[in-house]
């Protein structure tokens, strides 16, 4: 068993989709999602067998690569046509040290169908779970907080960084932070076209020793400086990403803890967009593991969105 790392989990949950397509209910505020709005295009994507096969194969291959690096992967199948974004499970639940699970309120109606009791049951069987806090009832009041997409959690310093958006409501964020003992750090961020960033985890990645951050997208200068200062105070190397690198999903990466070393899992597209100097800085503390998830990135998310990290203690094997 690898040494437990507060920031980098050693196990993840992945969902392998059988009917993947870009979700028409989320295109309105996801600038990363390449989807035409006309019904004919939506119908075409829904029935695009080639895209579905690519997504299925890419999830399968990614899980195999992670396993080969010593990461425990729990893979679940999604065989319905009603949940096109099910490949992104980190939005509807998260796990936390001490045996806690949170279930989140989702903005898009069809994404609410992604919540699965069999995943929660597996976590209770395989890991030590003390309680499950369910925030999904906040949907009735139109208060949304889409998990570790809406928040990027600094588990070491206990800070929840969050971009305010349709997917991140300040009241829901405050409630989560009160229950889970995080300090909320809420701010606004937009792309070069002035469009609000829909999820915080496309803007930043927090590792044990580093942070990758699209800081120029934080419009308020004082808030931007405050965020950067907090990371520097924690002793982390702050690697600033350009807006172009953010568009290539460089911020949508996840640090994992293998048996002997830490990994930074990112998409091949993101890896290619990093400069050699940025890679060198990252490789001082992590092994870079690029994965081809190009088909899945057409839906507006990348590898970090695909990995629901498990921060729970495993039960001893019988």
From TrEMBL:
InterPro entries hit by this protein: Amdntrnsf_FN0238
NCBIfam families (alphabetical): citrull_CtlX
Protein's name in the database: Amidinotransferase
Lineage of origin: Bacteria, Pseudomonadati, Pseudomonadota, Gammaproteobacteria, Alteromonadales
């Amino acid at each position: 068993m690898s040494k437990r790392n507060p920031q980098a989990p050693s196990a993840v949950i992945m969902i392998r989709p059988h009917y993947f397509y870009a979700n028409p209910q989320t295109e309105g505020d996801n600038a990363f999602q390449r989807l035409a709005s006309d019904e004919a295009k939506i119908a075409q994507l829904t029935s695009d067998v080639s895209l579905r096969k690519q997504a299925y194969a890419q999830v399968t291959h990614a899980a195999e690569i992670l396993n080969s690096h010593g990461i425990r992967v729990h893979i679940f199948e999604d065989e319905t046509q009603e949940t096109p974004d099910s490949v992104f499970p980190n939005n509807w639940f998260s796990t936390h040290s001490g045996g806690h699970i949170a279930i989140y309120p989702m903005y898009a109606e069809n994404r609410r169908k992604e919540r699965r009791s069999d995943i929660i049951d597996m976590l209770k069987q395989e890991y030590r779970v003390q309680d499950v806090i369910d925030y999904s009832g906040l949907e009735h009041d139109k208060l949304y907080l889409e998990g570790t997409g809406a928040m990027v959690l600094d588990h070491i310093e206990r800070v929840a960084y969050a971009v305010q958006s349709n997917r991140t409501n300040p009241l829901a964020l405050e409630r989560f932070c009160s229950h889970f003992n995080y300090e909320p750090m809420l701010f606004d961020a937009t792309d070069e076209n002035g469009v609000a960033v829909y999820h915080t985890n496309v803007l930043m990645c927090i590792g044990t020793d580093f942070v990758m951050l699209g800081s120029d997208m934080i419009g308020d200068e004082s808030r931007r400086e405050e965020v950067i200062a907090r990371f520097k105070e924690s002793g982390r190397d702050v690697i600033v990403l350009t807006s172009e690198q953010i568009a290539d999903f460089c911020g949508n990466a996840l640090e994992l803890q293998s048996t002997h070393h830490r990994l930074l899992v990112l998409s091949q597209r993101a890896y290619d967009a990093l400069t050699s100097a940025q890679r060198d800085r990252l490789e001082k503390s992590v092994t870079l593991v690029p994965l081809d998830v190009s088909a899945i990135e057409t839906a507006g998310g990348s590898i970090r969105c695909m990995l629901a990290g498990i921060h729970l203690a495993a039960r001893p094997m019988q």
